Amino acid sequence: MRTPVRESRADRSRLAVVRLLRERGTMSRADIARHVGLSRSTVSGIIATLVADDLVVELEAKLTPAGGGAGRPGAAVMLNPASGEAIGVDFGYRHVHVIIANVAHAVRIAKSVRLPVGYDPGAAFDVAADLVRGAIDEAGTDPSRILGVGVSVPGPFDTRRGVPSSGMPSPWAGIPVAVELGGRLNLPVLADGDTKLGALAERRWGAARGYDEFVYMKLHGGVGGAFVSNGQLARGVNGGAGEIGHLVVDATGPLCRCGNRGCLETFVGLPVVMRALEPTYGDRLTLRNVITMAWQGDRGCIRALSDAGTMAGRAVGMLGNILNPQSVIIGGALAAAGELLMGPLREAAAAASLPLAGDVLTIQVGALGPQACALGAVAMVLGETDEKLLAAMGS
Amino acid sequence: MRTPVRESRADRSRLAVVRLLRERGTMSRADIARHVGLSRSTVSGIIATLVADDLVVELEAKLTPAGGGAGRPGAAVMLNPASGEAIGVDFGYRHVHVIIANVAHAVRIAKSVRLPVGYDPGAAFDVAADLVRGAIDEAGTDPSRILGVGVSVPGPFDTRRGVPSSGMPSPWAGIPVAVELGGRLNLPVLADGDTKLGALAERRWGAARGYDEFVYMKLHGGVGGAFVSNGQLARGVNGGAGEIGHLVVDATGPLCRCGNRGCLETFVGLPVVMRALEPTYGDRLTLRNVITMAWQGDRGCIRALSDAGTMAGRAVGMLGNILNPQSVIIGGALAAAGELLMGPLREAAAAASLPLAGDVLTIQVGALGPQACALGAVAMVLGETDEKLLAAMGS
DNA sequence: CCTATTTGTTTGGCCCTTGACTAATCGCGG
DNA sequence: CCGCGATTAGTCAAGGGCCAAACAAATAGG
Question: Which member of B241, B259, B260 has the closest CB to residue A323?
């Protein structure tokens, strides 16, 4: 019971080559052959057809051979940057981010608009659609060259049904995101959960490049995450895999809206951290303020960040013990606190880790910052669109 | 950098067919073609070569066509049971189990010997080797027809290095199991961790048949487990993935040898349960006694099992929330307590579950009982041996 | 009996690999 | 500086694996 679509071997090979080029940028034909598992001669043929279709260009630059020392240098080939662009939309905790990137995954435009906390998705679609149109204008891109729009939605996402999962009460639950935004933009739209896309982006272009076993942890308005094992993103049955916000880190802790006590989300997460500082500093505080004040030595801010780090670290330790990843990548707005957060986090994680897991585990800050999820959305579009692109060119 | 071994497409196709037949038993050619993704004509050819090599036999029995109603019935083909047998050895908490099964995965012999708790692996190898030789004699199997021996070792296993992982202090840590037993038996030996093999067996022949997202939880001397997601077993970097014995279920609980407080293993697990009953019942109690006494209404025994179930259920809830599996399978000796354990377990799991995860999660007792790990060892041998078998026959 | 449906087999043709060959570079010794 | 072996990249011809399409066989249902 495989995929019922009958795609020829040739098409799948072309697809594999394009995907590889997308991930690695420029490569020689021999390099491609090694990575994709085809022979050099076959790859040469495939590249020839791709060049004929203007999907791939050959550069003058020569690449040093694989052996390092001697050997004929390879001719660099890459995806033709002019062959298309993809748009990433990230509906965040209180922003919408939009980026446009070309098929070589170079970001050309990045825009952002602030939204009120707890905004209504319906209104946000309108804002996002305007933002996207503005970005397209600004980039001067012909709409026909846009391969698609990827959307990052907060919280878990049910990929099978194509809507945000309706577990916790959320304004996004059950909203057909792709349909809503697709209708407004008249472009193909794909959607997935923010943490899954963040992990995808960090794996392709960020701190988890080449990792097959890692955990992505997003410390933001809420707390979420994603697990990659055997090089594959775990989704679970409903898209709930990786959702670590309600992992219990202290069974005697405060009540959580989920009905348990001491969920990670009751200790970490933007609103919790800010509320802890509110009695002292009032409610006009931003996270950016807190971080700079902490760097300047403010004890309260330091403590708020360090407490969050400690509890997150406990969760990291537990996840490390049961998943044994090579790395845990910390993303989300709180990650901007750097060592103020990561120091206590690492310490707590080390204390909770078994030697088996802890000895190999590295804990890193994500490399893509606030753009991670939007970049993941772009990556999703580029990955999913390859097939259509090739099919269209096949004529 | 794929696998450097160059195996021809033809070999891989043959392998896929054999693997499928191993999993499903008897099938028609058309059925195989659908499942393995090849065309009917190609499968016919492959089956012809396998029949010529005596690896596959065609039965007189006819199978009803896929459409249900009309259509020519298919000819049933299956692996030739006479083409080989595999041996599974399970080093348990205080037993060694040995089984012999043929390539159609029918168990022909099952033997078991008791060992002292905390036995020395060196001595256990001798016992196991004797047991295996005895089983071979009893089965009247020609040693040349034995494809290999699979060994199940307690605790995590580092597949890359081929030895039990050396995280917690364990008499098994670092022992080259395959070499030790292979030297004594002069047969090819493969080894892996007990929980990984238990999960493999439950997935192939037991309660998790066809599941691509599930958690296996072994409640035995220690507490361990395994995660399957996207149809693949998670191993992590060191084979530590799935090791849930030190998942913290109560941060204020008793100290654990790992240095944390309230690990699952401090509440569940055979020694803990028995020790709780020791003041009242003395130390001559066996788990079997406890279970029968509990069924007869003994409040102490009921409570001991129910307490274990409750704590295990908390862990199940947490794992369900972060992994979102379709099922959690409970194996190990404690699972024999049935509803006495599972009732409280299910209740605690339900209380801790988020709706997103809990609504789809089923919690079941493993179907293979104490043979699970030995059967997994057999499955491993059969799976790994296919390649050699085909290579040898290719001549 | 006839149609619809599915299975198993046969045949021409495409995709891919193997092996050999040429091209291009590095490192070495002279 | 030049020549030469070693090594790698890219291309070309021969052959094998696999598929699609057509066909024969076998059954259910009307």
Answer: B241
